[in-house]
Every structure is written in structure tokens, then in C-alpha cells.
């Protein structure tokens, strides 16, 4: 019996929570972050569920554990932990973790204004604007993102036929645009999204497989992106991303924005150098840009960048006490 202690910095990126674990994370075996993530999932997933789910977290909780990098070209490594699992990449989580790690002096970049991060999805570069102690904004250059499939269909219980494009932006997204059985984000309630999304995800998973062309460890449809007309005149599109079992991202979602930009680029609606401003369900904005076009296996992909801001809300020393019957968290 033991009490495990985790030293965390809590905050949010454009409204979505970020719990940075600065101390207490386990020693992980592996030569790469992909291997370390596999070790964590095999032996330490109770740390994720204990820190993310109730009673220490909540449905939307998301975060990252800091590690030394496994690659020479990086300053630090992030292992993402969320209610949905250990995502290969998390955009809002990266913007929040970079902001808080820099503001609290937990990492020193080799090059001023740039932090290079070793993530399970690959190298992510974060360029930041710092004003004294505070980080005003962070722009992450994400992993190559691509449109995987166009106009897939599935019958969804309670909704009927749903048509979706599936795109990858660090995770695989079913992108649901307004259509016969979905009138658009502005016409539905968050409770509808929470009710429909698991059914949509299950219906598409049952029919189709999605595997990253260069890294088969990254596979499977994890997120559902519902789209609609923006309310902010600055924004090009609005979205609500469903993840885990009960979460709607409060931020515009970094990997979701990357997936949407990849979809728009593949459809000829965005070209290299174009900006793409994405609005979240609560009205916060990420500023995306198509940085370059690249080839990923047989896919025409883009490298997107996403800019957003984050704020720290406090320090949090969290105990997971083995005697606690709810030590590893619960969901209702
Ligand atoms: O910002 O990439 C993101 C993200 C994934 C899940 C929740 N947020």
C-alpha cells in the first residue's frame, strides 16, 4: 500500500483543460516515445485514469507528463494522457503544456522562441511569444496531416445515414458537415452531440479501418468533428470535437483543426500559405496556416501550424492512495 504523489500544474488552452504532470510520472522503458507510450499503457494506465477521471479529474480532463527527449533534435518529450487514452498527439494539450512549462521554468529551449517536442506522433515544433514571465501565444507546427477518405457512409442508430470525410491531423477524425440528417452545429445542443457521437464513431469503426501510412501503431477512428457556420466574422469554420466517452473539446481542437485543414486543402479550398481560423463551441479561436505540402505514403498531405493561447489556473499536488476504492478514477 502506498500513496503516489503527482506534482501538477493545471490550466486551460482556449477553455479546454490541461494538467501538466511535472513530477511523479513513472520511469518508462523504450528507445522512442512510441515505445515509452506502449510501456505506459501496459503498466501504468492507472495513473492516467486516476489523474483524468473523477474524483481527481472530469470528463474533459486532458494533460501531459514531461519526459527527457528520446531524440537529439528535441528539447523535451510529452506523453499525452486524456480521458480518451494516450493520444499520439494533442494540439490544445501541447499549447497548454508548452505555455505552463515555460512560464514555470520547467524547460529551457535550446533556441530562443522555439521548443522542439518529441511526441509519440513525431517531432512537433512550438514557436512562442514570451512577454517577461508570461507566454502570450504558441504556434505549433503539427505532424503531416491528410484526408484519408472522402464521403464514407454509415447508418447511425437514431440519426439515419451519416456521410463523413475522415482526415488525420495527429488523430483520425470523422468530419460531419451539415447534411440531410445533421442540420449543422448551430442547430443542435451539446447534449445531442454527446448522445450521437459514440454511435457515429462505433458505426464508422464497424465498417472502416484507418491506419497511418508510416506508423501502423497510430490507427483507428478516435474523434468525431461536428461542423457549422462560425459566429465570429474572423473565423472560416466552427467545430465541436467529441473525444473519449463524454467530452466535447472547449477549444477549437488542435489536431481537429489540422484534420479540417487537410480536408480543405485536399478539396482545393486551402493552399500553401493560406490562413484558417477555427472557432470552438464556446467561441474561442485557433489560427491555423498551411505551412507546406508533403507526401505521406500515397497521400498528398500538408504540414499545418496552429496558434492559440493558454492560461495557468494553479498548482495541484494530487495523491493516488492505494487504499482509496476510487484510486483509479471512475466515470458515470
Ligand atoms: O487539441 O488536439 C487537440 C485535442 C485532442 C483531443 C482534445 N483536444
Secondary structure topology:
Layout: E1 3-13, E2 16-23, H1 33-43, H2 45-52, E3 62-67, E4 76-82, H3 91-103, E5 114-119, E6 122-131, E7 134-141, E8 145-156, E9 160-168, E10 172-176, H4 190-207, E11 221-228, E12 237-243, E13 247-248, H5 254-266, E14 275-279, E15 285-296, E16 299-308, E17 310-321
Parallel strand pairs: 2-3, 4-5, 10-11, 12-14
Antiparallel strand pairs: 1-2, 1-17, 3-4, 5-6, 6-7, 7-16, 8-9, 8-16, 9-10, 11-12, 12-13, 14-15, 15-16
This protein binds pyrrole-2-carboxylate.
Key structural traits:
332 residues; alpha+beta; 5 helices; globular; binds pyrrole-2-carboxylate
Describe the 3D structure.
The mean pLDDT is 97. It is built from five helices and 17 strands. The radius of gyration is 19 Å and the shape is globular. The chain has 332 residues and is an alpha+beta fold. The protein has helices spanning 33-43, 45-52, 91-103, 190-207, 254-266, and strands spanning 3-13, 16-23, 62-67, 76-82, 114-119, 122-131, 134-141, 145-156, 160-168, 172-176, 221-228, 237-243, 247-248, 275-279, 285-296, 299-308, 310-321. Strands 8-9-10-11-12-14-15-16 form an eight-stranded mixed barrel. Strand 9 and strand 10 (172-176) form a beta hairpin. Bound molecules: pyrrole-2-carboxylate (PYC). Pyrrole-2-carboxylate (PYC) binds next to helix 3 and helix 5.
